[in-house]
Design a protein that fits this description.
The protein is α/β, with parallel strands linked by helices and 254 residues long. It has 2 domains: 12-155, Thiamin pyrophosphokinase, catalytic domain (Rossmann fold); 161-250, Jelly Rolls (Sandwich), CATH 2.60.120. The chain is 19% helix and 28% strand. It has helices at residues 30-35, 47-57, 101-115, 132-140, 218-223, and strands at 12-18, 40-44, 68-71, 90-92, 119-125, 150-152, 157-161, 165-170, 178-182, 191-195, 211-214, 227-232, 236-240, 245-250. The strands form 2 sheets. A 10-stranded mixed beta sheet has the order 4-3-2-1-5-6-7-13-9-11. Strands 10-12-8-14 form a 4-stranded antiparallel beta sheet, with no helix packed on it. The longest helix is centred in the middle third of the chain and has 15 residues, at 101-115. The two termini are 33 Å apart. The model is unreliable at 1-6 (pLDDT under 50).
């Protein structure tokens, strides 16, 4: 994989990567796309099937037409699908290779953004269920420079929370669960500070997964206040229900 340099700027591009495996029904992700309009779409192998389904569902609202299709296509149910696209946007890779199709697609997302002189925000759709080795490989990408910033799974959304970032989580019901995981970089280290959880950061695990199946506190739920989580010294992964609204900001007064 190559390293891509991005010039200091405000310009960004939202790149959506569809990959194989289970993916969320298009309808349940509607709120996400209202604030995350696709700017460029990449389909990895059988992720093309998901991309086409999203394109049909959101026709006239959002454009999910793939502009790059890649992979070894060993899991694509109908190989004739590729004939519907210009040959120039299809990249075929051998089945025996060092990188998964998803990793190749993430790498292509970053190179595409660099070519447009944009900073990428990458949403990954799919890759849930099925083979455990593929799921672990996807988790491992969050320890890489070329990772997704949001991952839409079958029943939840995962967000990458960078170091020195505070996230606000709104729209949580009292029964909704929120979990916080580390990336594969380290099982320890860093500081997390939360406000509004039933179990606050003071009791988070110091090794491994900091918090699993946490919930909004009764007070914050009653007052409709957003839960906040700040990461310092390390990135973390935030796992929330689809209905949650997540906003990011740089942490102040570090």
């Amino acid at each position: 994989m190559a390293d891509y340099s991005f010039l200091p700027q405000e310009k960004s591009i939202h790149i959506v990567v569809f990959t194989g495996g289970a993916y969320p029904e298009p309808a349940v992700t509607a709120a996400y796309w209202q604030t995350h309009t696709p700017g460029y779409v990449i389909a990895a192998d059988s992720g093309l099937e998901a991309a086409e389904r999203y394109a049909r569902f959101y026709a006239g609202t959002a454009d999910f037409t793939p502009l790059r299709i890649l992979g070894d296509f060993d899991s694509l149910s109908d190989g004739t699908m590729l004939a519907r696209y210009p040959a120039g946007i299809v990249e075929r890779f051998p089945s025996d290779k060092d990188w998964t199709d998803t990793e190749l697609a993430l790498d292509r997302a970053y190179s595409t953004a660099a070519g447009k002189n944009c900073v990428p925000f990458v949403t990954l759709v799919g890759g849930d269920g099925g083979r455990l080795d593929h799921l672990l490989a996807l988790y491992d990408t969050f320890a890489s420079p070329h990772h997704a910033h949001a991952w839409l799974l079958s029943a939840q959304t995962l967000y990458y929370v960078a170091d020195a970032t505070t996230v606000e989580i709104s729209g949580l019901a009292e029964t909704d669960t929120v979990s916080v995981a580390r990336t594969g970089v380290s099982r320890t280290g860093g500081t997390l500070v939360s406000h509004g959880f039933k179990w606050e950061s003071g009791v988070f695990r110091r090794e491994g997964m900091p918090s699993i199946s946490n919930r909004i506190s009764d007070e914050y739920a009653a007052e409709g206040k957003p839960v906040t989580l700040s990461a310092d010294g390390m990135p973390v992964l935030l796992i929330v229900p689809y209905t949650a609204e997540v906003r990011f900001r740089r942490t102040e007064n570090r």
